[in-house]
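Title: Comparing notes on inverse folding

I've been comparing how different people in this forum approach sequence design from structure. To keep things fair, I'm posting one structure and asking everyone to reply with a full sequence. Here's the target:
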């Protein structure tokens, strides 16, 4: 029997309210994948910060973005893999995220771990809009530095705030908006655009 997808497990009955295009995006059991692509506007208030976090986007309009999402099992956990490519004339900026079950085991939460091997982890709360047309993912709870597979809780000063909203446009496209901010530095970087779901 095929294992359920991570987002279906995390959201429970709320998953069935999602628009069908969002279900195609997120209902990936291990071994299944989907490609999402289209142009995005990327912005970054602190260009110097890319030296610390090279996955931050380079500011530009109409950046071709290619995202391959895949369901997988890692360390016996059902996960959701994100491989994003921002394709600039000067070269491609790649970011990698593996979304896993949340460590606190609360419903409607997941843990995003960034980079290969993972070095950062942020806990996200998931919320389906009443009409099922959007999925909102917002940081809540613990965040971690990850070293050699060990999770070290970060103090609040080092926490980021991430808000990601994906909204169904029609049966084949979604609008994505991501904003990452910090309690001291304010809005740091983000991107938005309308993408097609293969």
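Reply #1:
Here's my take.
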């Amino acid at each position: 029997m095929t294992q359920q997808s991570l987002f279906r497990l995390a959201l429970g009955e709320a998953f069935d309210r999602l628009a069908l295009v969002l279900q195609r995006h997120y209902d990936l059991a291990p071994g299944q994948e989907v490609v999402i692509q289209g142009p995005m506007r990327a912005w970054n208030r602190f260009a110097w910060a890319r030296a610390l976090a090279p996955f931050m986007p380079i500011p530009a309009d109409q950046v071709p973005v290619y995202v391959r999402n895949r369901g997988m099992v890692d360390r016996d956990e059902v996960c959701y893999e994100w491989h994003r490519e921002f394709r600039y004339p000067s070269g491609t900026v790649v970011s990698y995220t593996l979304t896993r079950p949340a460590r606190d085991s609360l419903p409607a939460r997941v843990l995003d771990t960034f980079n290969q091997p993972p070095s950062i982890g942020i806990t996200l709360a998931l919320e389906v809009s009443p009409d099922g047309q959007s999925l909102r993912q917002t940081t809540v709870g613990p965040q971690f530095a990850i070293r050699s597979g060990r999770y070290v809780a970060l103090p609040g000063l080092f926490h980021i705030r991430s808000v990601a909203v994906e909204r169904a446009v029609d049966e084949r496209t979604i609008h994505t908006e991501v904003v990452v901010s910090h309690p001291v530095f304010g809005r740091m970087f983000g991107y938005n655009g309308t993408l097609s779901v293969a």
